[in-house]
Amino acid sequence: MQKRQLNPRIVTIWRQRAIMTHLIFWLIIGGFAVCVRFFDWPHFLFYIAGALAALNILQLILYVFLFPNINYRTFFYEIRQEDLLIQDGILVITQTVIPFTRVQNVETEQGPLLRKHHLTAVSVTTAAGEHEIPALEERDALALRDQISELIKENPANEL
Amino acid sequence: MNSKRRHLHFFAIFSDALSTLWSIIVPFGFGLVWGLRHLDDIIGYVLILPLVILIFNFVKWLRYTYEWSDDQIHIRSGIFVRNDCYIRFQRIQSVQIKTNLLLRLLGVVQLKFDTADPASKGDRVLTALNKKEAERIKAEVSRVKGQLSNLRTEGTAPESPVHKEKQPKKRYQLSGKRLLAAALLSSKIGVMLAAVFGLWSQADDLIPDNIRGRSLSYLEHASLVGLIILIGAAILLLWVASLISILLRWGFFRLTVFDTEWRIHRGVWETKDETYKTDRVQAIQIQETWLQQLFGWCTIYAQCSGSIDSENDDGGSVIVFPMLRKEELPGFLSTVIPRFAGTLSTRVLPLRSTLYRMAGPACFWIVSCSILAWRFDWGNYALIGLPFILICGWFRRRSESWALSDKRLIVVNRWFAKTTTITRRNNIQSLTIKQSFLQKRLGLANTLATIRASSEQIFSIHQLEKEHANTIFQWFRNRN
């Protein structure tokens, strides 16, 4: 089977998630600054709050404007006869092969954001760790799940 | 046959809530109640806590029963939440019998069943048991398992009697000389030092102020030579202590190799009898510390799937033999575990990968030195450390290598000790290649092989040629 990319809508979802964490961090930093201002906390904590705010802005730039596009371009998965190949990564590109005979279970997960876009995350668990495909069409996800569980049945000789 | 989708019983809500509450109340609740009432006299608190623990354990003991029948053992436990556990004998991978000096005086042993569950929950331990009873259970388990394996192979070899399999293939005993060598070469001074420092920090609370003040003032007045002698004596003492601890731990080490299992017996005070099925072995590790390498010795570990004693000091891996000459290694491996035996010659990593890996720590050191030199006068002197880091990095990285031979993947890594890991293709759970932008430019890549031992274990080959990484990748993908 050929290389398949994620659903393009995942870029929006990644951005939305990043913005949410961004806002939560602003709340925390704001609360911190207010505490420093109105209670008798040492003054140097303002600098720490400032540094955190700078980091937060950096996070916004990286995770909202830069990383989602790069990650979308690098990510692909490929289902072959006997194994699953996943490539992922932003600065460090990772390629992982998981033979179907090693797969113990397949999980699908759908948070509110994914549900809105009719997407599903599929994660494949082996005896040592979990590998995730972050977004697939609901239909594809179910097909993948069934396909893998078929293949597990075909190859019961798990040597573990 | 399919069943309909069903909820658990409605009471599950309450029972789960109760067990959560209980796990919160036991540590905090008692402390809170007694702490409030006896806030001023801590003695009462100190006395009452062991009593509570004792009563708790008594109830636990009262509720903990076991019985065994033809093919399974049934363990009942739990105080509020009843826990019934049935273990089929054929699902038990190994039975461990453990004892220490105190228990041995009473003629009592600990019995542990290893099953395929993860180590955290899989262990079923009968904490105190009559020795005879333990032996009987162990014999029963191996009898049932033997019967089953006979049944399975009946078609091919109906004649094979049970006792024939019990004939050991080979027995390895750790001789006195080797034990001494092991103790001399691998005693852990660092651990001992940490223990003593820990004691010293505790000593603050134990020793009254005036005495401590006196002892410290004595130290201040002592001459430099005296101080050095004192430190030397302390280190020697620590070293002897660690020597003795290793002698006690590895004394009477005996490895008996059967066709399908190993039996390992060890310990002087705390004896341990352990049985491991060889088909559970996921990887073999050969470890050489610097001293061992100098004298040509090595230690053999095995990574097994299933639950391994997590309080083991070897971090979940099984120690197969503590002290072996390097030239005995091929013979030893082919007797003990033929699957993993074979050549151990490996391919060295390219030179630029060594330089690449040395660059990281060197850059870090230079940057931190510059910051230090900018802030403090003595910062410049910190640069003296740089050559040491470079030399250390050079030797560490140059000894790393890898090899593929038939179905085996061999990885040599070094942190302080040189570790050679041998694993097989069908023991690898997943294989990963990592490549950063800079590595791409240099034509290098990292390869990580994940296997499943008692916990997840990752063996990595750092910075090997990209094409070699691809070779390993293809080797893994073209299974069968």
TrEMBL record, chain A:
It holds the Pfam family bPH_2. Residues 72-148 form the YdbS-like PH domain. Keywords: Membrane, Transmembrane, Transmembrane helix. InterPro entries: YdbS-like_PH. The chain crosses the membrane at residues 20-39, 45-66. The keyword Membrane applies. This is UPF0699 transmembrane protein YdbS. It comes from Sporolactobacillus terrae. The gene is ydbS.
UniProtKB/TrEMBL annotation, chain B:
The keyword ATP-binding does not apply. Residues 149-169 are annotated as: Disordered. Pfam families: bPH_2 (PF03703). Residues 61-139, 252-328, 401-475 form the YdbS-like PH domain. It comes from the Bacteria. The chain crosses the membrane at residues 12-36, 42-59, 179-201, 221-248, 355-374, 380-397. Keywords: Membrane, Transmembrane, Transmembrane helix. PANTHER family: UPF0699 TRANSMEMBRANE PROTEIN YDBS, UPF0699 TRANSMEMBRANE PROTEIN YDBT. This is YdbS-like PH domain-containing protein.
